[in-house]
Design goal:
By secondary structure, the chain is mainly alpha-helical. It has 7 helices and no strands. Helix content is 79%, strand content 0%.
Length: 187
């Protein structure tokens, strides 16, 4: 943990202990580090692609439990996107703000091919492909969110990253079980 992390935590704790909202507000005004700003910009794009796939799944899934999971994924990730956009607007960045070009989808272009394939599939073929793609997608998020938990400065962002790791790990577990049970595929 860096000096900045310790200082931020001490300031926030001191503010809570004194009951002074002004102390907590000062901690919230700390700009996002370049790492945090880039993480949020990338994760917004990543989550958007997951939301798109999950919404397609809601309309195409044959198993009601898969449709329900997809609906919950979309809801959770839209909430995360809203939080990250709010933080980007509120915190800005140490480098003077978050450039619009940071929200570039280039790192996630591979999901466009997945969407095209998923759009063409139906029934069990769709479900098997969706589960396979979403497990891969979640694993990528776990890697970056795990790093965020040690690199981010703002407690709110660390909490969001922890939630991504916990939630998406559980979802991977369920999706792997369904792949095995429904399609005899080990992922």
């Amino acid at each position: 943990m860096t000096t900045r992390h310790v200082t931020g935590l001490l300031v926030a704790l001191w503010g809570v202990l004194l009951g002074g909202a002004a102390w907590a507000q000062d901690a919230e005004k700390e700009p996002a580090s370049p790492y945090e700003a880039q993480f949020m910009a990338d994760m917004i794009v990543h989550h958007n692609s997951a939301v798109e796939m999950a919404r397609l799944c809601v309309s195409k899934a044959e198993h009601p439990e898969l449709a329900a999971l997809c609906d919950q994924m979309a809801t959770d990730q839209v909430r995360d996107i809203d939080d990250m956009r709010t933080w980007l607007d509120t915190w800005g960045s140490e480098s003077g703000g978050v450039a619009e070009e940071m929200l570039c989808p280039s790192a996630h272009e591979g999901m466009g091919g997945a969407m095209a394939l998923l759009g063409d599939l139906e029934g069990k073929d769709f479900e098997e492909a969706f589960l396979t793609f979403m497990i891969q997608h979640h694993r990528a998020a776990l890697e970056t969110a795990g790093r965020c938990m040690t690199e981010a400065d703002h407690a709110e962002l660390v909490g969001l990253c922890n939630n991504i790791v916990v939630t998406q790990s559980a979802e991977i577990h369920v999706m792997r079980q369904w792949l095995a049970r429904w399609f005899e595929v080990c992922a």
